[in-house]
Design goal:
This protein has 681 residues and is α+β, with helices and mostly antiparallel strands. It is built from 13 helices and 39 strands. A hairpin with a 5-residue loop joins strand 20 and strand 21. The two termini are 50 Å apart.
């Protein structure tokens, strides 16, 4: 199997190189990038014979966006066909455990909120709505018998039924004044003002059509800091297990902790399953019901970053806690559980690989993946070694594949024909020794690359910081669109990035900008020495979120670059502490509250070096960004204007932390490339 896969990727790599060298290939434009079909998560049928996935077509006219479900045979012998045709897209789709039926949520014409639909493939016809719940259906999960569905919905505290919530919502609409009132923390998340609603779990009986709030009797919901996490059916099919925190309101001064609970689907008091000071994010079960499998981390009030660890418990006692794959030291992105093993997508040094983890002893082996591309969104069937997944890389958008025992079957094939017209190169990896450690970078060559030419260098810096530059396709800062035919791109995973071990990610604490900034500069200089086609006299740097923070740090600490680009970047870490939706993690990063004169607050705040600001810089920001609120960009703009630094400010009134609307995205890319062209001639 491994030899076949190695040969396959060698052939793919060879073909991509051949295409890149063919004359007449075009650089990837924003228009071409937007025309790519967006392929969603695959779900394979329990018998392993069929696969469903979503396919989205994006238009510059948002009203023309289209998303539908597609069905394909898992052996690849029958071409995919579209099985939904409505304007509203489908979400949360899954198979019935024993019948050829597909369930999904959608907000179709006449729906006030997302409802549950069923599509019977054996009888044909259109999907039928099977819920009428005004609060909406979120995260539906079917039981093993296929006759009940758990789902979550937001309710007003103390109001457990759909009708009572609907009545109160109508009364609130009549109130003439508009005000948000808070007595607890937090008050915002990402781009949304929080309200008093809580997420509860409901059960829908598909036979009687009755809906019941499972949380009517639990005491957790009385806490000011209650927040539901994940939930799953317990093996007895008469109860559910869930993770939840009751101290979210304390996160201004400490990390919250999520514990694991159980409650009967008929209601009643919750049962705390384990109280070991672990902070658990998810829990599920082996197919035979013998083990509970949880992701979590030991509670730590001093660490900026904690990687989730994989734990096994004997069920139903929740005893014999055992950490699985403790030596892997890599974050798990997503996983599915069979009777004997866990199939997990694991981030490892710039790629997502699939690992098979034995439930009994925690031994593991790589199933798919290596140094190129990323494998994720795995979906297991009931057949041994038959599963679906996504594969994508920087040069190829996500497509659906099926692993059939000893062969790989391409399923969706939605973009290959179009991409043959474009010169989209695979990244080259190189490692740099900086500050005594090995730092990985990707290098992207421009389209129509000529090794005899000299190209300017654009240093792209990733957000996070607990993130990484993966060999995976992206739309928000696509390096191929940024490179065009003019620029070489270098993308460095500085200290704080994930996929290199928990300690590497944690070592950014108390050194948020200076150390990572030096590593980025060292990697850029290393690239210039390694690659003769880079013109070291023409360099720019930019990034978004933490990458924007680092761009502003470059402004404060070096005149190395001809120009800079900062999207959603902080310039004043003290102001960021007080206005972002997260507080305590920023305190941990800097070693104390802003009024505590720690070395980090004093020495690694870009605003404190405003007298040094000289490099021309483009600032962009979404007005609805609560993660790095607009005040930081406005403060930066004031400094730049006060210091008479060549600069440009672009505010997107409709955008949040990301620039997502198609026309706004096209303008954003255009302005970035115009800025580079101005200073890297």
């Amino acid at each position: 199997m491994n030899k076949l896969l190695s040969l396959y990727f060698l052939l793919v790599f060879s073909v991509s190189l051949t295409l890149a060298q063919q004359p007449g290939l075009k650089p990837l434009s924003h228009e071409a990038m937007m025309s790519i079909k967006r392929i969603g998560t695959p779900k394979i049928s329990p018998d392993g014979k069929w696969v469903i996935y979503s396919q989205q077509t994006v238009s510059y006219d948002a009203e023309s966006n289209q998303s539908d479900l597609w069905l394909a045979s898992a052996d690849g012998l029958q071409a995919p066909r579209k099985i939904t045709q409505t304007k509203a897209g489908e979400d949360n789709y899954f198979w019935h455990p024993t019948e050829k039926k597909i369930f999904f949520t959608a907000k179709r014409e006449g729906d006030e909120s997302p409802q549950l639909y069923v599509l019977d493939l054996s009888s044909g016809g259109d999907a039928q709505r099977i819920s009428n719940f005004s609060l909406g259906i979120s995260s539906p999960k079917m039981n093993a018998e296929g006759n009940k569905i758990l789902f979550s919905a937001k309710v007003y505290p103390g109001l457990f039924t759909d009708s009572l919530n609907k009545k109160l919502a109508e009364e609130k609409k009549k109130i003439k004044y508009k005000a948000r009132v808070y007595t607890t923390f937090p008050i915002r998340y990402f781009d949304t003002w929080l309200d008093e609603k809580q997420s509860h779990v409901f059960v829908l009986d598909l036979i009687s059509q009755k809906v019941q709030n499972v949380f009517t009797g639990i005491s957790l919901i009385l806490s000011k800091g209650f927040q539901l996490g994940s939930f799953s059916w317990a093996p007895d099919q008469q109860s559910l297990v869930f993770t939840a925190t009751t101290d979210l309101h304390t996160t201004a001064y400490q990390n919250s902790i999520s514990k694991i609970y159980q409650v009967n689907i008929q209601g009643g008091k919750e049962k705390l399953l384990i109280d070991d000071q672990g902070d658990y994010s998810s829990i599920d079960f082996s197919k035979d019901g013998k083990y509970a499998i949880a992701l979590g981390a030991p509670l730590n009030q001093t660490r900026f970053y904690q990687m989730n660890h994989l734990y096994r418990f004997s069920w139903p006692e929740m005893s014999n806690k055992t950490e699985l794959v403790s030596t892997l030291d890599r974050p798990i992105n997503q996983m599915e559980i069979s009777k004997e093993y866990i199939l997990a997508s694991v981030e490892d040094q710039g790629v997502d690989r699939l690992f098979k983890i034995a439930i009994q002893d925690g031994s593991y082996q790589a199933v798919l993946g290596g140094k190129q591309g990323s494998f994720n969104q795995v979906s297991l069937s009931n057949q041994e070694n038959v599963f679906a997944y996504q594969y994508n890389s920087m040069s190829s958008p996500a497509e659906v594949f099926v692993h059939q025992v000893d062969k790989k079957v391409a399923i969706s094939n939605a973009n290959q024909a179009m991409l043959k017209n474009y010169d989209v190169k695979d990244p080259e990896e190189f490692w740099t020794v900086s500050r005594g450690k090995k730092i990985r970078s990707f290098l992207i060559k421009p389209a129509s690359f000529d090794p005899s030419k000299k190209y300017p260098l654009f240093v792209l810096m990733h957000g996070g910081p607990a993130s990484s530059f993966k060999d995976a396709y992206g739309y928000r800062w696509n390096p191929h669109v940024l490179a065009g035919t003019e620029y070489v791109i270098v993308m460095t995973d500085y200290t704080g990035s994930i996929g290199y071990g928990e300690k590497f990610a944690q070592d950014i604490q108390l050194d948020p900008f200076k150390g990572p900034g030096q590593e980025i500069l060292d990697a850029a200089n290393d690239a210039i020495k390694r690659y003769s086609f880079i013109d070291g006299s023409r360099q720019a740097a930019g990034g978004a979120s933490y990458g924007g923070h680092l761009a502003n740090w470059m402004q404060a600490s070096t005149s190395h670059f001809k120009c800079l680009i900062s999207h959603a970047g902080l310039v004043n870490s003290e102001a960021q502490w007080g206005t972002s939706d997260f507080v305590y993690s920023r305190e941990l990063m800097n070693g104390g509250a802003p009024w505590v004169p720690t070395k980090t607050w004093k020495e690694q705040n870009p605003m404190r070096y405003a007298a040094n600001f000289k490099t021309p810089i483009l600032l962009t920001v979404g007005e609805n960004d609560f993660r790095v609120p607009i005040n930081n960009t406005l403060e930066n703009w004031s400094i730049l204007q006060r210091q008479k630094v060549p600069s440009k400010l672009i505010v997107f009134p409709e955008e949040n932390h990301w620039v997502l609307k198609a026309e706004n995205s096209r303008f954003h890319y255009q302005e970035i490339r115009n800025w580079l062209a101005t200073y890297l001639k």
